[in-house]
Amino acid sequence: MQPYFHSVTLETENCKGCTICIKRCPTEAIRVRNGKARILELRCIDCGECIRICPNHAKRAIADDFSLLSKYKYTIALPAPSFYAQFSGQDMSISRILQALLQLGFNAVFEVAEAAEHVSLAIRRYIETSSIRPLISSACPAIVRLIQVRFPDLIEHLVPIHAPVDIAARLAKEMVMRKLGLRREEIGTFFITPCPAKVTAIKQPIGFEESWVDGAIPITTVYARMLKVLPCVEDTPGLQQASALGVQWGRATGEEKAIKAPRHVAVDGIHSVIEVLEEIEVGKFHDIDFIECQACRGGCVGGPLTVQNAFRGWVNLEELTKNLPAEIDLGLEKEVDRRWAEGFYSLETEIEPRSILKLDDDLSKAIEKMELLEKTVEFLPGLDCGSCGSPSCQALAEDIVQGLASEGDCVFVLRDGVQSLAEELLELARQVPGSISHHEAADKKVRLRIGERSKSGSPGRPGLSDGLKGRQLGGKKG
After folding, report:
1. For residue 164, what is the enclosing H or E element?
2. Which residues on neighbouring strands pair with residue 294, listed in sequence order?
């Protein structure tokens, strides 16, 4: 199996082992062991939620920088619609933002918002031809990976159409190849990205072999340079091409408005998306044609690699699009129809589920581990407190069965084990020959210690419960 690429990585030296991240990760991909977090690569979908909420800045995104431009003869910037939302002001315009990108060293710009118009029309056509309901947008790569990991039965509901950034890169390269006679590999296309999931989607695509995008540079990296050149540039006619519908893909509800499905829903924020996907799994939403799902609250304007607050970004997009055409140009529909017939927008391969819990390659051992897993889940307290370093008791049970944790990692199990051991010691002390006063003194001392342990909840010595492991799993819950 090809190893997974991940754009979200851990800065171990910054991690304080606080366990905040394990409770917010939508795929339970983080554990805290020995006071440090670790990311399970099979489960991670690079949504960036841990980057957003880590108070110690121990998670960061790996992406490209401007040094990569020197590898190509001709470079094209692909600004995400959410990139525009980082700028505001009475004299600000999308044309001026695009001109500033050229000042940073790019030879050309191609709006991802323009490609979003293509994709909107292509999805309209797919909705007309598909009988599956509801259809789920595949534009957000974090959502695609979420479905692969947690909701594999819903893969058939994903719209098998390329995301706007991939279409933008291909359209831009083909245009330059025709006009300048350059080869594909001589042209570099660089996406200005609001999130790490899109970096991962470029480096390791789903549904096709190789991306037409050559690099992904975070909005946070580009923003600082933009502030230096923006005061020196003016509007340049002809640079800005997309309609308001294309640009508004950068925020929640923008995609569904552009697609204009008869019955549609937009949901943003990955935990809200999970709630909707759970309902789709049990047969609800069957009367909805299309669901726009965005991992980030507010849509891409709320991405973890953006600068502006998502709510301010929403307002900025509204201001920047108020003078743009309200509808997609009718002439584009004929072009999309032609390209649709050629399969230009369709994914090349099927989206496959991702297995995250393979207990053992040997079937008989896997069955044994499954039985042990069920017993372990019953034995654990079921509080899902996260104190053990796993996000839930179910996750801890899985870790125990896989040899990645022990029952002693649960503070409640450890406390009960210590108390049980202390009581056994007390009973032994009573049986040792000696004076009555000696027995009473020992009894009082041990009972006092038991009471102190129970009140404080002290976990006792590390690994103490390991010696009781066999007896505990066979007994009742503490």
Report:
1. helix 164-180
2. 268
CB 362 within 8 A of CB 405: no
Average pLDDT per consecutive 10 residues, the chain (478 residues; last block may be shorter): 85 94 95 94 95 95 96 98 96 96 97 98 97 98 97 97 98 98 98 98 95 98 96 89 97 97 97 98 96 98 97 96 94 96 96 84 88 93 94 94 91 87 85 63 58 47 41 42
For residue 1, give both structure tokens: 């199996």
Among 391, 292, 396, CA closest to 50: 391
The letter for the amino acid at 246 is G
How far is Cα 460 from Cα 253, in angstroms, rounded to an integer? Answer: 53
CB count within 10 Å of CB 436 equals 7
Examine the domain organization and report whether 231 and 251 are in the same domain. Answer: yes
Helices (H) and strands (E) in the chain, counts: 19, 11
Identify whether 397 is part of a domain.
Answer: yes
The pLDDT score that the predictor gives to residue 272 is 98
The per-residue pLDDT for 433 is 72
Q: What are phi and psi of 79, to 5 degrees?
A: -75, 130
Tokens of 130: 């598909």
46 and 170 in a single domain? The answer is no
How far is residue 439's CA from residue 435's CA, in Å, rounded to a whole number? 7
DSSP 284-328: TTTT-SEEEEESSTTSGGG-TT-SS-HHHHHHHHHHHHTTS-SS-
Whose CA is closest to 291, among 246, 255, 328? 255
pLDDT given at position 419: 84
Give 58-89 as a 3 state SS string: CEEECCCCHHHHHHCCEEEEEECHHHHCCCCC
- Beta-bridge mates of residue 30: 39
Per-residue model confidence (pLDDT) at position 448: 59
Distances (CA, A) of 257 to 58, 252, 260, 261, 345: 37, 10, 5, 8, 20
Instruction: Judge if 53 and 72 occupy the same domain.
Output: no
pTM (two decimals): 0.86
Identify the pLDDT of residue 361: 81
pLDDT of residue 236: 84
For tokens 């108020």, the residue is: 322
Residue of 296, 334, 298, 331 lying closest to 315 (CA atoms): 298
Q: Which CATH number covers residue 37?
A: 3.30.70.20
CA atoms within 13 A on the CB side of 396: 30
Neighbours of 108 (CB within 10 A): 20
Domain boundaries, position 42: 8-61
Alpha helices in 181-249 (DSSP H): 196-203, 219-229, 244-247
Q: What's the confidence (pLDDT) of residue 468?
A: 40
Whether the link from the prior residue into 141 is cis, omega within 30° of 0, is no
